[in-house]
Write a structure and sequence with these properties.
CATH topology of the largest domain: TIM Barrel
Number of domains: 4
Largest sheet: 8 strands, mixed, barrel
Pfam families: EAL, GAF, GGDEF
Strand order of the largest sheet: 17-18-19-20-21-22-23-24
Organism: Vallicoccus soli
Strand content: 15-25%
InterPro entries: Cyclic-di-GMP_PDE-like, EAL_dom, EAL_sf, GAF, GAF-like_dom_sf, GGDEF_dom, Nucleotide_cyclase, Rev_trsase/Diguanyl_cyclase
Protein name: EAL domain-containing protein
GO molecular function: cyclic-guanylate-specific phosphodiesterase activity
CATH architecture of the largest domain: Alpha-Beta Barrel
Number of strands: 24
Number of helices: 22
CATH class of the largest domain: Alpha Beta
Radius of gyration: 32 Å
Amino acid sequence: MGGGRQQGRGRDVAAEGSFADFRDAAQVVLEDLRGRVGLDSWLVARRTGGDSVVLAAAEDDPFGLAPGASRPFEDTYCVRVLDGRAPAAAADLDEHPALVQARAANGVPARSVLVLPLPGPDGEVLGTLCATGRAPYPGGQPELDAALPTVRVQASLLGALLARELRLAEAARRAERAEAAATTDVLTGVGNRRAWDEALAHEEARATRYAGDVALVVVDLDGLKAVNDEQGHSAGDELLRVAARVLRARARESDLVARLGGDEFGLLLPGTDGAGAAALAAQLRGLLAAEGVGASVGAAARPTSGSLADAWRAADASMYAEKVARRSRALAERAGERPRPAGRAGSAAQAAQAAAAPAPPASVDALLRLARDQLGMEVAFLNRFDGEQRTFRNVQARVPLPFAAGRTEPRQGTYCQMIVDGALGEVTPDTSRDDRVRDLPITAELGIGAYVGVPVHLRDGRLYGTLCAFSREPDPTLRDRDAQVLRSLRQVVADVAEREDGEEARRHEVLARLDALQAEGGPQMVFQPVLELDGLGQVGVEALSRFPTGSPDAWFAAAAAAGAGPDLELRAVARALEALEHVEGFLALNVSPATVATPELARRLAPYPPGRIVLEVTEHEAIADYDGLNAALRPLRGAGVRLAVDDAGAGFASMRHVLALAPDVLKLDTSLVRGIDAHPGRQALATALATFAAATGATVVGEGIETQAELDLLRDLGIAHGQGFHLARPAPLPVPAG
């Protein structure tokens, strides 16, 4: 149980098949290390607020430590190693006072300890790998120190795996937020109860798996019923919108703001501890009060041994206690009494650093740098085999090289092919002493003195290529353990490379389709009339693209993902402008913010009368730089081109967006217009947009009018223009006679 290291090579843990997730992989690695290095307890832990939480542990832990177990971070062996008070490896813990203090604090009766950080791609500490033994380490300090390189390799691998899984978790969080945007409270524009419940479930799963901080704040508006009764529901609706605007202004991109009920809001705060949530709650009280909105606010963090449901109940209780205290003070003041000071409740918030943030997306280059640095070599690269050729797919070097990534050459006569064929071992410490490679042309060309390489296979068993590293000087200390570094990384490298290759293949496929489309003359155009709603006279048309197959949205989205979005949009603009002389009224052209920013758009528009052109800026992507977008639009608008904000009320069409662009035309999104005759919330939002447009001199166009009832309601609301199947369908322009 507390025995020393097992001799021999050990298992190639990272290459023995796929793992369901980080916890599965870590458990296999930890059990392998226990068998090879010794010590009784092996685990991976991560700091969450003031606690250290176990993410993974070897089976049958003698101290009863299992995933989810926690203890104060300041009581652990890990903190004393990380802050330099104790060494990474202690064969006899009793010789180190700082570790003896930790033992007294945490109650784990260890006599030997080994602690290493789990590094992320940028050097940040994502967690710790910790091993403890119930007896002093057999062989003493020299033998435990000798085991450190083996453990450090596996710690680096686990760090890469955890960083990748945290990156995937963050991508999932962004996808969930995007989905939540579709489940929006129509009146306020924030998430609704469904969005809240789904996000709460996802964050609970992430917190359980990765032990990350997460907190929430609940806000209950005071006196909403009285406002509705005394001033009317329009005043109450405005109160709700003001509150929502304040909450969104303080929320980060990763946070969720939702309306939970009639007068209650919630903020879900990933990566925030109790102290941070309490500070935000205090800020929100002041900001809401400054806007004339009275509110009771409660905050709580997910407890280490509890759930987000517990945090929600605690925050709700805190909010209700504040509301009761507020009412008590008001009653006392009316009666001329001095209110008694409220008693203290709850405990002080923990002052602790936030857990490490999710790592940036993993890449083959980042993994190559990890391998190169771990081996202490000058060059690391990934080869991809294509038939009889090999391509240097990725190269990371500390020294100048006579080649770069992308070079292709025959596989025969290379170290890589010899390793795959079994004609050369995976480790060559000194090429000058190895007859098999000494006289190879590539040895002289690249100046290879020492070389390590391993085959790389995809998960379906196909040979992908090789993962290799070399230095210009011989290194007689190279051993099989150095090849183990590459073996530990190769499956992760293969997964990332396969994903990147797939993305590149899809990009080339899209570009080929766009080239074929251009050869056929580009997208075809149809034109949908825009009419005055009172007299139904035509005031202009909107140009719409049509493609040989599939929807226009799919074509434009695929082009944008392939980096060719502006090019396709500009082709469509050019085709539409060819028809301008046959158009009655204005010609509206759909363009994304990215296309507006290209100088080519202005060149395409230059030959045509600007007063007849309307640019509809689509709202399906966020605008990061309003100043830059307005700078690109300024000369066009100065010449007479009008600006329309398309899809207002959907996507990213917030009031801030509309205010920042100050459009000449506001186009109500189809989702607002459809069924508006039977939907008071949509009527309220359309009325608000119409009022804003009237105050700023803009024109409102209702899109997607499909029934007479919708048309009549928009007329009653004072909407000037409209378009939709009920009025006129998109069609090619009539071909002029002669």
